[in-house]
């Protein structure tokens, strides 16, 4: 399971499962291709309103991180 968590957010995130208080979005497969991921991607929601979808897209596309979040496994 890969977590995408915003840097220096206002509140802590639970990076051990899918039950974080921020109500993260969990991706099991690529929304574009429908291909299943080897590991689920847990996209946390920033308390300060940052949009982390760009990081998720970068991760899925194998691109460089945008620098607004980080990935942990
Ligand atoms: Zn969270």
What does this structure look like?
The protein has 73 residues and is α+β, with helices and mostly antiparallel strands. It has one domain. The chain contains 1 helix and 4 strands, in the order βββαβ. The protein has one helix spanning 53-61, and strands at 2-6, 25-29, 36-43, 69-72. A 4-stranded mixed β-sheet has the order 2-3-1-4, with helices on one face. β2 and β3 form a beta hairpin. The termini are close together. Residues 13, 20, 22, 24, 44 line the site of zinc ion. Zinc ion binds next to loops.
Task: Please state the average pLDDT score.
Answer: 89
The small molecules bound here are: zinc ion
- The helix count comes to 1
Low-confidence stretches: none
Number of domains: 1
- Rounded to the nearest angstrom, the distance between the terminal CA atoms is 6 Å
Q: Regarding quaternary structure, how should these chains be classified?
A: single chain
Give the arrangement of secondary structure elements.
Blueprint: E1 2-6, E2 25-29, E3 36-43, H1 53-61, E4 69-72
Parallel strand pairs: 1-3
Antiparallel strand pairs: 1-4, 2-3
Give the key terms:
alpha+beta; 12% helix; 4-stranded mixed sheet; binds zinc ion
Provide a short characterization of the protein structure:
12% of the residues lie in helices and 30% in strands. The protein is an alpha+beta fold.
